[in-house]
Design a protein that fits this description.
The longest helix has 17 residues, at 342-358. It is globular, with a radius of gyration of 22 Å. By secondary structure, it is α/β, with parallel strands linked by helices. The strands form 2 sheets. The chain has an 8-stranded mixed beta sheet, sandwiched between helices. It has 2 domains: 2-167 and 342-376, Rossmann fold, CATH 3.40.50; 171-335, Rossmann fold, CATH 3.40.50.2000. Helix content is 37%, strand content 17%.
Length: 383
């Protein structure tokens, strides 16, 4: 099949985030299965890639979304991706579209009007950011990133979602850690940066790495950065594309999302899986889908619990080598469980989509020339 990933947001190498890394992983996995893949994404306002993109657009009349292939597959980039649907649909001719992130509802509706089956990925429960009202549609199906997310959309929108947790290709994250630091990623107030700084103040004997976000503006992180600068045991690190550079020092990963900010709900927690593939335990809040992501490979603390609960968890896993070894082993096993195996998940999703889109309504026969998902799933080279 020819499968197009669609997002209204920026995409690597212009932006890195959880949804983007999950999309990239899916592209690589689908290519490995023999499918053709491409991405439709937004374009950053400046940069070398943007200059090349705009130059090609001017040289080739009518081409508003030129493609580049630095990631190993075509990425069509331009202003307002929802406006590029017809152009990219004509040029790439997808059999199926995965609306991955950003204004996924608007993207899905645009591709549905083109007659292309669409699968919408619901990666959070902040519905005001979906680009429209999510609802059941004939040519659209929905996939949630956790049981928590699926339950939310079932309760509030009566949607039946398949579940596919964010795919993590273990080889891209696996490392041998020296166990020298506590690691925390994305210093947003909503993701509990104040908890991390308070723990660093109480445990000056432990080194803490705070890894910056790709997107948070300076004025948002400034208070935390200033506080961290006063703590000799805290390193403020720049965001990096290769997360092995971060995890190679991690003994523990902290994820206190939603602490003090009940308006923020963590739908899954990709960082937990990334860390656990190297046997690194995770201490996380109970927000949203984080308990699913962490499982037995760490400690889950109630989002309303006092700081003392976080301190106790850090103390136990840092100071008690036997306790640490037990949880680290569980973390590694949790990352290897069958229901988060990326190839297995993707194979299951495509088979489900074959049932959704490949089977005609009762009493009707599939029309000649219609997209036959069932047969394409068994094409040579797929399994």
């Amino acid at each position: 099949m020819r499968i197009l990933m669609a997002t209204s947001k920026l995409y690597p190498p212009q932006f890195y985030g959880g949804a983007e890394m999950s999309t990239h992983a899916m592209c690589l996995l689908l290519q490995g299965m023999g499918h053709g893949v491409a991405v439709l994404a937004a374009l950053a306002p400046k940069g070398t890639l943007t200059l090349r993109n705009r130059l090609e657009s001017r040289l080739r009349s009518g081409l508003d979304f030129p493609s580049d292939s630095s990631l190993g597959y075509p990425v069509f980039r331009g202003w307002q991706p929802t406006q590029g649907v017809s152009e990219v649909a004509e040029r790439f001719a997808p059999d199926l579209v995965f609306a991955q992130s950003g204004q996924v509802v608007a993207m899905a509706e645009a591709f549905e009007r083109q007659g292309t089956p669409v699968c919408v990925f619901l990666r959070h429960t902040h519905v005001q950011h979906l680009g429209g009202t999510v609802r059941a549609r004939a040519g659209v199906r929905h996939v949630a990133n956790s049981q928590h997310t699926a339950a939310f959309y079932k309760q509030h929108f009566e949607l039946d979602c398949a579940v596919m947790t964010p795919p993590v290709i273990a080889a891209h994250y696996r490392t041998v850690t020296d166990g020298s630091r506590v690691v925390y990623i994305n210093p947003s107030p909503m993701k509990g940066v104040e908890v991390v700084l308070a723990l660093a103040e109480q445990r000056p004997d432990i080194g803490f790495d705070i890894v910056d976000s790709w997107t948070l503006p300076g004025h948002v992180t400034a208070p935390a950065r200033q506080r961290a600068a006063r703590l000799p045991n805290v390193r403020w690190r720049s965001a990096v594309a290769d997360m092995r550079q971060v995890y190679q020092h991690a003994k523990l990963v902290l994820m206190p999302s939603g602490v003090g900010h009940p308006e923020w709900v963590e739908a899954w927690g990709r960082v937990a899986t990334e860390a656990q593939v190297s046997g690194i335990p995770v201490i996380a809040s109970s927000s949203g889908g984080l308990p699913e992501a962490v499982g037995p490979g760490g400690v889950v603390i109630d989002v309303d619990a006092p700081l003392a609960a976080w301190r106790s968890a850090v103390d136990r896993l840092w100071d008690d080598s036997a306790a640490y070894a037990t949880v680290a082993s569980a973390a590694l096993q949790h990352a290897q469980r069958r229901n988060v195996h990326p190839q297995r998940q993707l194979l299951g999703l495509l088979r489900t989509l074959g049932l959704w889109f490949g089977t005609p309504p009762a009493g009707q026969e599939r029309q000649p020339g219609s997209r036959d998902f069932d047969s394409r799933l068994t094409m040579p080279g797929y399994l």
